[in-house]
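REQUEST ID: PR-0412
SUBMITTED BY: lab tech R.K.
PRIORITY: routine
TASK: structure prediction, single protein chain
INPUT:
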Amino acid sequence: MNGRPTEPPRPICVIGNANLDLVTGSVDDWPEWGTEVFLERSDFRIGGSAANTALALQRLGHPVGLVSATGSDAAGAMITHQFASALDWVAARPGPTSMSVGILQTGGERSFFSTNGHLDGLDAAFFSSALEDWPLAGAIALVSGGFALPGLMAEHTAFLERLRARGATIAIDPGWPGGGWTDDAVDKAHAWIGLADHVLLNDKEALGLSGENAVHAACRTLAPHMRADAALLVKRGPEGAACYRHRNYIIEQALPLDVIDTVGAGDAFNAGYLSAVAEGETERAALRRGIDVASAVISEFPRSGAAIFPEKSLAPCPTSSS
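STATUS: complete
OUTPUT:
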């Protein structure tokens, strides 16, 4: 915190995917087909980029609402139970909830096997209806995992325009396109970037989208597609994170730590960074908090629901009266 008197932090609306994750590991090499491997640890938990960010914001005590959906099964009920504040809007859709299995590699990398499940049906009409009564004016709206929501793809740009028309500050974390950076995926990402105030990418996404070989060069290449006052955030894993805005390039380094589980690291960074932005902190302070929140999350296994930096937590989210 910066020590100066501030107004209550702006709420953050996290829009996107929620599913269940089974994360297990670690392995040094991929086993042969038909064999069995016994692993040291596993964690069955809520996942999806949007839900991960919303959970981290909950742990920070920041006013947040998740706007998403689940399937109509026991997995969906588990997710819905976690998101029951007055700002949350999580619908149950017919069919199975999307699932992801994450296999951790020794050293921190991971691979995912995922099913789309209920996510295929989440389109712009669904999210627009869900947001009808959400207090977006003055809030930060993060659209997370756009490339993981095939139903939203066709109207994603128009959806962002509607969010801006309702007075929201827009942040996007589009993720990695399933088919790679085709010309169509690049065109879509450029359109989304042009409507965002905060563009959150990891280093591989920034390099893939820009066609560059270095993060700083990628930022310069993507800048013409951005709003004049927008910030481009690049998450660089153990090397920290960078912010490119108004042609200024700021880097904050990550501290060395024992990495256990990197699943959701970028989502946790988003929570820390955006919570600091919502408080009116400087870009460097927001970068620092994003890195610190991500570092705290990836150093624990299984994932905890305990507060992150409780001495700095903000007012708790409002709870539903139902």
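NOTES: Confidence is low (pLDDT under 50) at residues 313-322.
REVIEWED BY: pending
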